[in-house]
Amino acid sequence: QEKSSRLSAALFGEDCEVSHDQLYELLKYAALGKCHNATQPSWCRIYHQSHLAGVVVIVLQEMSQLHFYKFYLQFKHLRKVFRHRFTLTPSANFLASLYGEGANLKPENTAQGLTSTSSDGIPESSDLQCDPIVRKYGEKKRGLTSYTLTLEEQKKNYYPMKGSPGCKGYIYTECDQQRTDSSPLFGLDCEMCLTAKGNEVTRVSLVDAQGQCLLNELVKPEGAVVNYRTRFSGITKKMLLPVKTRLPDIQTRLKKMLPRDAVLVGHSLNADLQALEMIHPSVIDTSLLFARNEGRRFKLKFLAKAVLGKEIQCEQKLGHDPAEDARAALELAQFFIEQGPAKVAELNLEMLLTTEKLAEVSQNKAALQPQGCRVQKQLNEPPHPSKPCFLDCLQVTGQKPLLLGRQELDSSGLCQSNLSTSNKQILQRALEDVPLSTFSIIQFSLGPEYIASHLLTGVCEKVRSKLTDMLTIYAGPFEESFCLKSVKKEFGRCGPIQSLTVVTETYQPYVCIQYEVLEAAQLAVESLNGAEVAGSCIKVQRPVTAAMLDCDVLIKELELDVENEGVIYVAGLKKSLTETDLQEEFSQLKDLETLFLPKDLQSGKHRNCCFLKFQKSESAVDALEVINGWTVKGSRLRSRNALASGHLWRWIWQMNHSNGKQGGNILHEKMEQLSDSEQDLRKKVKKLDQHIKKLYRSLQNNTLCVVLFPGVN
């Protein structure tokens, strides 16, 4: 809703349906901008993408569009805040489709960087030529100066540099001496906490070429700490209380400790130097040194285990140890220099990573299956070209994606089920960690007890029944010999009729009419109740059932829905009128933005109604007064505020036709008390809405926030 980064899209007709590929386009461009071949999505535009503070995707597991309208009144905050809604086509592997089905979920083929191996597991020499490490450095051993980043590489990977606009006030290490292959290597790593000023250094470690720790210092941040990030940083409030050392002290000490020809080594070292607010001319970045295809990077933890045989960043420890990480990065660089690119390529790291993932899939198979995760099935399918995983691409700019929920993704990209995690716990984690991440996926869940097929069928039937009742009106009484054609003509002026039947069980005949759109039924109740039709003064009403007792409240809320802001419904059009005719007729209306003429989704013929969207709500109100009673080419028009946006109109049509019944067979919900499970479900949905409200309010300005109802099939 911010002017500097706004999302614009057409919201009528076919444009209301979004595929997973289109969603992927949007999220990839929002997260990466023009980097990594990300382009504007084909179906909408994001203006000033560089102004985006972050992307947050909230996934409501097990819930679909069906649940949104079943619990429309409970989703009070969600429907008032989120202005654009689209029908999302189903996906077999929903989570993977969010971020692209890259190496995180399937073994890669040769094109994606997996080299074929000989019987002893060593890549054949012909395949070595295709390895990204060999392509980048060649096969021969070289000295360390061949692996330091060039100025162009530093700029591309967001390293602080002299003269860069964002580096004003940064301290230069003044290590200007010419580097040689015998220049000393130093490992560097920092841990950060979130403060009122942003990410600030709270711990710095420096190790020398022999692995000796030269510096392992806590640092007092300038700003008040908002989040200690203890799970990652290992820093606690108690640890920082006695600390007097400030960032300028560390900068001075580092300048004194580093020789004039020092080469700094680190994993994604750009983030550490940015946090230190220091510029150093000669660096080796191990996340770039061990090259992969498509800009992806190996994690330091994986490289330490695969190359050095060392376990680091163990889950048992409280946070990362920067000295341990600095030493691991240093030893990786030393291994690469000593062994040379060909030997490193022979390790076949891509194969090792894939094997590790396959082993974890096997271990987690039992946990994955109940949650509907289709990883195992995919692994049995032949590999096919896949979309690159843009979560990996985020690492290039030093960004770390956040994935929270009962079905979390671990570092290898596999689903991990944790049914003991509550939505409240997930919310608390999200409130702490979302501000630290530029791309977050937060999953809330109703719980497995609510996805049973019989329960889902019950919800579906109730929604279908209620929608049918809302589309239906009873009119009468009429005289015994009334003209049915006159009745159909009069009620047809309110909108397209799906079915019309005469009710003969009553003392005098009544007519039951089922409309195709909600606005038509409401217009009939408002304009024809108490009117004289076919020679009789009639009453017009909807069916009276337990589910319909809150119908008036629901109609009012639909009318006030943000999607219907500035939109009016117009009925009574002659079917001979074309869209061009209507554009001409309505051109005099002030601030008219869009005209949408609904079509029958089977025949393709347009209906006798249309929707008009105005740039301003006041203009829509003025248009209602003008249009009511207007005559267009002999046809008298009726209008009211819109109730159903484009995607809801299409969905109602599909629900009414999905069971193959054409009118007449109107289902009525029995007047009985809600079951305990449904009452509980209402409470859960209301709580979810409050969670979304809290999370939304915690977001920074210019954040793109998307809420997804993936369903279960």
From TrEMBL:
Highest taxon listed in the record's lineage: Eukaryota
SUPFAM superfamilies from the UniProt entry: Ribonuclease H-like, RNA-binding domain, RBD
Keyword tags: Exonuclease, Hydrolase, Nuclease, RNA-binding
Single Gene Ontology MF annotation: RNA binding
Cellular-component GO terms for this entry: nucleus
Domain RRM residue range list: 471-545, 566-644
InterPro entries according to UniProt: Nucleotide-bd_a/b_plait_sf (IPR012677), RBD_domain_sf (IPR035979), REX1-like_exo (IPR034922), REXO1/3/4-like (IPR047021), Ribonucl_H (IPR013520), RNaseH-like_sf (IPR012337), RNaseH_sf (IPR036397), RRM_dom (IPR000504)
Pfam families the UniProt entry points to: RNase_T (PF00929), RRM_1 (PF00076)
Protein name: REXO5 exonuclease
Organism of this sequence: Balaeniceps rex (Shoebill)
Organism placement in taxonomy: Eukaryota, Metazoa, Chordata, Craniata, Vertebrata
